[in-house]
Amino acid sequence: MAIVGRTNSGSEVMDLETVVLSEGEKPLETRLRPYPLRILMAAGGTGGHIFPALTVAEELVGRAEAYDQEGARPSVVFLGTTRGLESRVIPAAGFSLRTVTAAGLKGISGWKRLANLLVLPRSAMETAEVLRSFQPDVVVGVGGYLAGPAMLEAALKNIPTLLIEPNAVPGFTNRVLAPVVRAAAVGFEATAGYYGTKARVTGHPVRRAFFHIPAKPHVPPFTVLIIGGSQGSRAINECAVRSMTILSRKVAALRVVHQTGEPDYNTVREAYRGRSIEAEVCAFIDDMPKAFAHADLLVSRAGAIAVAELAAAGKAAVLIPFPGATDQHQLENARVLEQAGAARLIEQRVLTAERLAAQVEELLGDADQLFRMERSARALARPDAAVRIADWVIELGRKNREL
């Protein structure tokens, strides 16, 4: 039989495995078996925060039996909110989600900022309660307003913390957390300097399916995939509809797949209908690797995970960085791909329907150029990033157990 041992506070510590031999029911041997590692993933709000954490979590759970002699899988729990994308994506992936109240501060002013500031004490209390009840060995954060309270509370409790920083320039939360986190997994060499000796260049954790997308022959009918991020982009949505209208008059057999985000879904869908363009309009694309596989070219924002997925899939793109990103980190991400010859860059301040249409037309008309860009993109990929980060999480957790 198996009994669960507990500390004085009532929290679970280890399994007591009792082995009963042949002499009746009397227990002859009892040995202690350490409980599996507990890992809390603080990731919520946008796909750029959620999917890297989810990729690492799947790597941890998927290969648990290979590193634990007892065959025990780590217990991975996500920390999120009830209103974010995580409330749908995390449970669908088979992971437990514990929710807290949280609100952002960056880029917000006036009464809204004051209201969000008043949420912070509640965020801290609820996060502390999750840490107390779950007792993680490691807390992993991927930036955003949710990661701040979780990583800070964990650091104050001396729980090992690992920060995943996928951007070329760290976001606001990750810069604030730099002095308190124990480790930082960064996607770019240039980013390591922000975290000093705490940093390791691991690359970006990207879902495995992106690495298995086969090369596509670039012949009509052409498919253009338009993505404004998991929440959509009004600037890209409005420009893309006009741009694809221009392009449809010049490129035969053009097909558009457009992820709009929830707010603009109905407007964009009706706009395409009125222009007689073959367009598949989605508020959110659940199977993004499949959408990538069918695309000849992407038009996209330049969030860190977006550019990492482009590299993993070996896809050419026209990148339009979000101009409001902290310290222009999307612009820096896009420049990395542009300088490698993997993408074209159009800043939003000079974006017009005519300019976008001309850029897409040029690329679709030159299959050799598309293939060269795809090869350059794939050369930037780091297929072992999730493995490296998972190894580090395990290393931190085991060291913590030994203390």
Provide a descriptive summary of the structure in words.
By secondary structure, the chain is α/β, with parallel strands linked by helices. It folds into 3 domains: 2-34, no CATH class; 38-205 and 384-402, Glycogen Phosphorylase B (Rossmann fold), CATH 3.40.50; 209-379, Rossmann fold (3-Layer(aba) Sandwich), CATH 3.40.50. It has helices at 47-62, 64-67, 86-92, 110-134, 147-156, 172-177, 234-248, 265-273, 288-294, 304-313, 329-339, 353-364, 367-379, 385-402; strands at 2-6, 12-20, 27-34, 38-42, 75-80, 96-99, 138-141, 161-165, 183-186, 199-201, 222-227, 254-259, 278-282, 297-300, 317-319, 343-345. The protein has a 7-stranded parallel β-sheet with strand order 6-5-4-7-8-9-10, sandwiched between helices. It has a 6-stranded parallel β-sheet with strand order 13-12-11-14-15-16, with helices on both faces. The protein has a 3-stranded antiparallel β-sheet with strand order 1-2-3, with no helix packed on it. Helix 11 links the parallel strand 15 (317-319) and strand 16. Helix 4 packs across helix 5 (147-156), helix 7 (234-248) crosses helix 12 and helix 10 (304-313) packs across helix 13 (367-379). The longest helix has 25 residues, at 110-134. It is elongated and about 65 Å long. The relative contact order is 0.12. The model is unreliable at 1-33 (pLDDT under 50).
